Amino acid sequence: MTEPIVKPRRKNPLLRTRLPTSPPRARSRASHGFTRAAAEGRFMLQRCGACGTFCYPARDACPACLSADLVFADAPRRGALLSETTLHVPADVHFRERAPWRVGLVAMECGPTLVAHLHADCEEGQPVVMSFQLDKSGQAVAFAHPERETPNMADDRQWREMTADPKFRRVLVTNGRSIVGQEAVAALKAAGASIVFVGVAEPWKPFRGEDALRAIEGVQIVPLDIGDEKSVADLAADIGGKVDILVNTTEHVRAGGLLDRQGTSVVRDEIDQSYLGFVHLAQAFGPAMRMRGSDGVNSAAAWVNILSVYALVNWPAFGAYSASQAACLSLSHSLRAELRPGGVKVVNVFTGPLDIDWFQTVPPPKVAPRVVASSIVSALKRGLEDVFVGDVAEDIRQRLAANPKAIERELGA
Amino acid sequence: MQSSVRTPYDRVVMAVPVTIPYVRYSIESAQWWIGRALKALVDGAGIAPRDIDGFCVSSFTAGLDSGVGLTQHFGLCVRWLDTIPLGGASAIAALRKAARAVQAGDARIVACVAGDTNHVDSFRYTLENFSRFNQDAVYPYGAGGANGSFALIARNYMRMFGARREDFGKIAVAQRSNALRNPDALMKAPLTLEQYMSARPIADPIHLFDCVMPCAGAEAFLVMGEDVAASLKLPAVKILSTIERHNAFGDDPVQVRGGWTMDIGELYTMAGVKPDDIDFVQTYDDYPVISMMQFEDLGFCRKGEGPDFVRQHDLTIDGSFPHNTSGGQLSVGQAGAGGAYLGVVEAMRQVLGQAGPTQVKDARIGLASGFGMINYDRGLASGAAILAGPGS
User: Fold this and answer.
1) Which residues on chain B are in Cβ contact (under 8 Å) with A58?
2) ipTM of the complex
3) Closest CA–CA distance from residue A86 to any residue of chain B (Å)
4) Do residues A27 and B135 make contact, with C-beta atoms less than 8 angstroms apart?
5) Residue B2 — very low, low, confident or very high, per pLDDT cuts 50/70/90?
6) Span B28-34, average pLDDT
7) According to the model, what pLDDT value does residue B4 have?
8) Chain A positions in Cβ-Cβ contact with residue B289 (cut-off 8 Å)
């Protein structure tokens, strides 16, 4: 049984912060099929297109028939734990300071045997359920869970290394005026976040939902105008050392593309708010988060962006907005690489049009802000990296994978 | 499993067993260690380096150099060359290839050498870069290295066949007692079963004295025609039979047997001997559980009887079943690929009557085996050879 984690005490500012170390990072190119699966929370194995054999580790030819037609396919998650060991003297720094560490051999019902990290409640000889997770190096690893829910399951020490669970962590939500921001605050508090800082520009101006926000225990409203570099830097100077999860709920949506707009002022606003706002936040909060990636139970763990799914392919009806989102998406990949040495995840939550005023004229289906909020929490708890929320986002993702040219023409029709 | 009729190793022999005594850490390179071994080979045989026309080398730490680079390094001009990266199976594989090359006339004198250095950080480097499957799917899981992988195999074996830690301990303790008679063994202190049992855990059920100590060193021998050995007046070792197998029993969910099992009939048939005729055995002892597995797979008892076999035998030099008479890797040290050669070179000394303080009385026929390359979840390479002295 898993012991529940205890709320960390206030940090002694005189103590040295333990620096983050990375688990082994090197992988073959083929192996990144698991990285993709882990990023989205899928369990995929290579399967031979010719003979149907599932194989593992990642190969470039089928070990049963030598076909090169190996594709990553969703695979049954069940297996049995054949043998386990507890490593007391690992060879590298990362695991040495986390020892003892438990791993095992799992025979999958679909065939292959996987070396896996073990949840503490897995028992030898018993069935387990597998997932691929992104470890602190950002690479995929196989993780074995007990078949049935066990008490305090999410508090398992090895599991928590794979996730960015909000429990006992301190969160900054950057925009408390937006409905998505307010829903995110409520969901994160409900998930056990110890403090949620909520950024509000010009906080003396009242806003809808303010009373409800202030009524939640552990919520602190802080002044933050992310378009203003100094405002962001001031807040980071104040709370930057205790932001474990940053949720960027910046929302700046305007309709239109290029030809029906006069001049660049609207475009400039979009870039200032979405793109430069992201830059300001990253430069102010990123370095401290990267330093605090191994800082105990409430280590820095994740950076969450809420992006329009039209970051992936332009929707001319909101053409300039789509482009600003594409810029943010590209920047998020840079941030992901730069935060990786700290073991801090960058989670991109892609949504279709939200059910908010700025998408008033867009026909349904639209995404309820509450659903975005619960997707954020679920992504953090499961340790995901790319999340698609709602039917439109999923539709765009699939069409883009099927034929990027078709979706370009169809969105522009 | 069909058995083929194999050409005997007629008029091909091994000579000049060489060990360059090990050190725990060395600031020298692998090339330095391999060079010392080559020098000992030519000095021992009374030949010049130019007389070596075949070269077979194994090393984990020679950096960018394969065999061909090493020919220039050592000034060897050879007409037959091989680089064997099979870890603990390298010596058996080297012997097999070299013997056939000599038999076919492709080479006259082949130097088979394994040498590795051990810098303070080189073992971790080897672990990190061992194989693609290891890098993708093993090392990121706690960075346990071979200890972690063999722990999973050992635990499964214990549960399936009722082996106890005491049984593994008996193997390790007997080897230590053998090693105390070998001046070149790195382990100099006696080991009791109590010390073995109370050692600190490394990766359950693997504890400290189940693990080999990585070190620097080199081992080597020559393969040549019987006539060449006679003309050089070198005591010669006969090769009665050999086997080699890779990636056997891939469908076993956890490794409980090695590739020897597939070829064991051929090993004894070709040699014309039975397990009872073997005077001593040198197993590949990266972990005692693997030695126990070899007692079964090499035909000394049936599968699952390894624990009982160990309980019923005295495994020391003067015992009922002399095993790893030099002390084995567990007590001499594991000099990288040299670990593959340790048992083969000691077997040569035994059948030649040159083993000195570790000599088994009247040793005529011996078996040496190799095991290597835990590429993913199991050791893939296995091999064995039955060797005999000149009088047999």
Assistant:
1) 136-137
2) 0.91
3) 5
4) yes
5) very low
6) 97
7) 60
8) none
Q: How many CA atoms lie within 13 A of B89 on its CB side?
A: 24
**pLDDT band per the 50, 70, 90 thresholds, residue B85:** very high
What are the helix and strand counts (H, E) for chain B?
Answer: 14, 11
Q: Given an 8 Å threshold on Cβ–Cβ distance, is B204 in contact with A115? A: no
Q: How distant is the Cα of A22 from the closest Cα of chain B, in angstroms?
A: 10
Q: Do B202 and A89 touch (CB under 8 A)?
A: yes
Task: Determine how many CB atoms are found less than 10 A away from the CB of residue A55.
Answer: 18
* Cβ atoms of residues A254 and A267 within 8 Å: no
pLDDT at B123 over 90: no
Q: How far apart are the first and last CA of chain B?
A: 30
Could you read off the pLDDT of A214-236 as tens digits, one per residue?
A: 999 999 999 999 999 999 999 99
Q: Summarize the confidence of residues B80-92 as an average pLDDT.
A: 96
Q: Is the peptide bond before A365 cis (omega within 30 degrees of 0)?
A: yes
Q: Hey, are the CB atoms on A103 and B141 less than 8 Å from each other?
A: yes
Residues 8-27 of A with CB under 8 A from B: 23-27
Q: Which of B135, B143, B253 sits opposite A91 (nearest CB)?
A: B143
Chain A residue whose CA is closest to B126: A91
B135, B156, B201: residue with CB nearest A88 = B201
The torsion of the CA quartet A105, A106, A107, A109, rounded to 10 degrees, works out to 180
Which pLDDT score is estimated for A413? 87
Cα–Cα distance list, A190 to A184, A185, A186, A395, B377 (Å) = 10, 9, 6, 30, 42
Cβ atoms A299, A163 nearer than 8 A:
no
Q: Report d(CA A22, CA A220) in Å as an integer.
A: 33
pLDDT tens per residue across span B185-238: 999 999 999 999 999 999 999 999 999 999 999 999 999 999 999 999 999 999
Q: Which residue of B has its CA nearest to A124?
A: B156
Q: Do B128 and A83 touch (CB under 8 A)?
A: no
H-helix or E-strand containing B16? Answer: strand B12-23
Residues of A in contact with B123 (CB under 8 A): 91
Distance of alpha carbon A230 from alpha carbon B29, whole angstroms: 56
Q: Between chains, do B141 and A89 touch, taking CB under 8 Å as contact?
A: no
**How many Å separate Cα A18 from the centre of its chain?**
23
Task: Please provide the size of chain A in residues.
Answer: 413
CA distance A101 to chain B (A): 6
Q: Which amino acid is at A24?
A: P
* Average pLDDT over every residue of B320-341: 97
Burial of A230 (0-12, 13-18, 19+ CB in 10 A): exposed
pTM: 0.94
Q: How far is B254 from chain A (nearest CA, A)?
A: 8
Identify the CA nearest to B50 among candidates B109, B114, B97.
B109
> Dmax over Cα atoms in chain A, in whole Å?
70
Averaged pLDDT of chain B: 96
By the 8 A CB rule, do B236 and B226 touch? yes
Closest C-alpha to B18, from B332, B337, B327, B348: B348
Interface test with A, best of B124, B125, B141, B152 (most A CBs within 10 A): B141
d(Cα B37, Cα B68) in Å, to the nearest integer?
17
Which residue type is seen at B165?
A: R
